[in-house]
Amino acid sequence: MRSPLVIRRRNGTVPEQSRARSLRGNKLYLVVVGYFAFVIALFMAYQRIPPPETYVVGVLLLGVVIAPPLRFVKDWIPFFVLLLSYQFMRGAVPHLTTKVNIHPLIDADRVLFDGHLPVISLQEWFYTPGVTRVLDVVLTFIYIIHFGLPLIFAFLLWVKNRVEFRNFALTLLALSYAAFVTCLLYPAMPPWMAAEQGYIPHVYRIVDITAANWFTGNSLPSLVWLFGPNPVAAMPSLHAAYPTLILIYSVKTFGRRGWFFLPYALLVWFGVVYLGHHYVIDVIAGLAYAALAFLAVRWILQRRSAGRRAKVPAADLRRPDHVPVTTASIGRVGELGGQTRAESGSAAAVELTGLADISAG
Questions:
Q1: HEC letters along 231-282
Q2: In degrees, to the nearest 5, what angle opens at C-alpha 253 toward C-alphas 175 and 75?
Q3: Considering only CA atoms, which of 142, 91, 160 is closest in space to residue 265?
Q4: CA dihedral in degrees (73, 79, 82, 86; nearest 10)?
């Protein structure tokens, strides 16, 4: 595998150009996070629910400002079209299916928790009917805005690394459409609906109750909401899958700082069960779908990259204008560079790292 050739100063100082690029990137992160934090806070202050288009418009505005428009269109328009198409298509699932699965999910949770249903137990422990707690408001808001979070994170990736953005976008689309096919072939009834039909004890629809009591402002119109959600899409839980995928890419891209997102993911995994919209088995399935989508897309991209390298004709490597780089030749360049610096009186030293032997054919 070819290693990059990196030139650094011996004293370890960072070149001014790299430092300026790093500062610019940090400022862009602050602008992106600050914008979306302001929008969410504004909706919270006016007790309104932000529609999905809020995040799309925000990404469009920021993207056009900080990058050439053609680059933004090339990277984002296919992603927008496919993701919004999924949002529109999922509302058609109830009209395409006649059988809904009920008991397998209930039985799975009872097997996992010694005959108990966590959705019932959590509401008995933490929910007080007729009282709107801070926990209910926070979890309801997080539940409602879950579609916007992947867009925000995708934009952060796009600012940092366009390759990672494209990988994340492909994985998110693969995850979404895999869930859509699953819901189409295996529609599953959520706990609140199962309780309404008498299959399990009473489950409070905390999202609806909290939204009616707290989000009293007029919501902005939304094209996505016109198509309506899919009420029989409990398996797998995309509310659990999306934060899982974001957590995976956060750690992959930002290293240890990526674990900062873990508390949010834990809150979502807890919230979707507590709110009465999913069983624990749905959450487990969502985590598994996210992990499998990540591994599948990475495997496909690696195979594609390997195939491209294999197609490079060997003759291209023997062309006269193709000069092989070897350790000896790099050493010779270092000697010549040292002579030049000596002649000019420069005392700076250059350290060559990441050297690799590269075969000429």
A1: CCECCCCHHHHHHHHHHHHHHHHHHHHHHHHHHHHHHHHHHHHHCCCCCHHH
A2: 60
A3: 142
A4: -130
**Helix pair angle (238-254, 262-274), 10° resolution:** 170
**Terminal CA-CA length for the chain:** 14
Helix spans in the chain (H): 16-45, 53-66, 69-90, 93-96, 103-112, 118-126, 134-144, 148-160, 162-185, 191-196, 206-213, 223-227, 238-254, 262-274, 280-310, 327-344
Q: What is the pLDDT of residue 157?
A: 87
- 134's torsion region: left (phi>0), alpha (psi -120 to 50) or beta? alpha
Residue range 136-154: mean pLDDT, rounded: 84
Q: Which residues of 304-313 are buried (b: 16+ CB within 10 A; e: fewer)?
A: eeeeeeeeee
Task: State which amino acid sits at residue 87.
Answer: Q
Half-sphere exposure in the Cβ direction for 16 (13 Å, CA): 0
Nearest to 72 by CA among 61, 81, 82: 61
Q: Which of 84, 99, 101, 339 is nearest to 226 (CA)?
A: 84
Q: What is the mean pLDDT of the chain?
A: 74
Which two structure tokens, joined as six digits, stand for 123?
A: 């509401």
Q: How far is CA 50 from CA 184, 214, 220, 228, 230, in A?
A: 28, 14, 7, 15, 19
Q: What's the pTM value of the predicted model, to 2 decimals?
A: 0.71
Distance CA(332)–CA(78), nearest Å, equals 48
How far apart, in whole angstroms, are the C-alpha atoms of residue 116 and residue 107?
10
The residue behind tokens 């008498």 is 198
Q: What are the pLDDT digits (tens) for 97-121?
A: 678 899 999 999 999 999 999 999 9
Cα 220 to its chain centre, rounded Å, is 25
Q: What is the mean pLDDT of residues 229-245?
A: 87
Nearest to 354 by CA among 332, 325, 315, 319: 325
Give the CA dihedral 147, 149, 150, 153, nearest 10 degrees. Answer: 160
Distance of CA 114 to the CA centre of its chain: 34
pLDDT at 345: 46
